Amino acid sequence: MVKRIGLVCLGHSSVSDAIPGVKAGLSNPVEVVSCGALDGLGDAEISALAPKEGDHMLALKAEPGVMAKVAYHLLFPRVQECVRRLELQRAEIIAVLCGADWDTLKSSAVLINPGAVMPHLAVALSNGKKLGVVFPAAEQVTNGVEKYRRLGANAVATHITMYGEGGASEQTCAAAQYFREQGVDIIYMPCMGMTGDQQKALRSLVGCPVLLAHSVLARILDEMVGDQG
Fold first, then answer.
1. pTM for this one?
2. What SS3 state is found at 154?
3. Is-contact 27 222, C-beta < 8 A?
């Protein structure tokens, strides 16, 4: 019986949108503990994690309404430390709340790496139809869409910030128009900080199925935990 799961977010755990989003999607009773890779860091320390040209860039929530951009290799040790802390809290399953690939993380717990699982799921579900992928930063679009094409998808991509105002923000509407023009059949939102409101807006505006990463992750965790009654 799984008694405790751990969630690692990339930003401050106290302001994460993904942690409550995943918890809300769990139907089976289980204790949830969390850790944020930026927990305990101030503005200057976060700025020191900023990516340089050529770095693998990650977008995350640094504080309410504020998106920060950090270098993957600089944040990685802090993500690994979060995993260690959750192990000490006896989390039996640990999930990283990020769509990047964290395949070199080490853990004694069952470790869910969405970046290794969900792109394949999205590509398989598109099944040759046109897949639209939404990234949280414009800088991620070119390399990001190539990843899905290498996996065999007929993919196009655009970006929407995680922290737009409401569901149908200006960026969301622009993304929807782009996807309509491209004839997209299914949309995948890989960023864990993207919201249900943005998902609903895209589904309504484009008129096609939309996968939201943290909702999919919650269902995977729910299946792994099972009915413990």
1. 0.91
2. strand
3. yes
Residues contacting residue 14 through CB under 8 Å, at least 6 positions apart: 36, 39
Sign of the C-alpha dihedral computed for residues 199, 201, 203 and 206 taken in this order: negative
Count of CB atoms within 10 A of residue 102's CB?
20
Type of residue numbered 134: V
Q: How far apart are CA 133 and CA 187, in angstroms?
A: 6
Specify whether the CB–CB gap between 97 and 18 falls below 8 A.
Answer: yes
- As a whole number of angstroms, the distance between CA 119 and CA 98 comes to 12
- Name the DSSP class of 179: H
pLDDT tens profile 201-224: 999 999 999 999 999 999 999 999
Find out whether 162 and 217 touch, Cβ atoms under 8 Å. no
Neighbours of 124 (CB within 10 A): 11
Residue 21 CA to residue 89 CA, distance in Å, equals 21
Could you give the C-alpha distances from 88 to 38, 81, 105, 146, in angstroms and in order? Answer: 19, 11, 16, 38
User: What pLDDT score was predicted for residue 179?
Assistant: 98
The string of pLDDT tens digits covering residues 23-36 is 998 988 899 999 99
* Per-residue tokens: 172: 């969301």
Upper half-sphere CA count for residue 103 (Cβ side, 13 Å): 4
Q: Please state, rounded to an integer, the average pLDDT across all residues of the chain.
A: 92
CA dist., res. 133 & res. 119, Å (int): 10
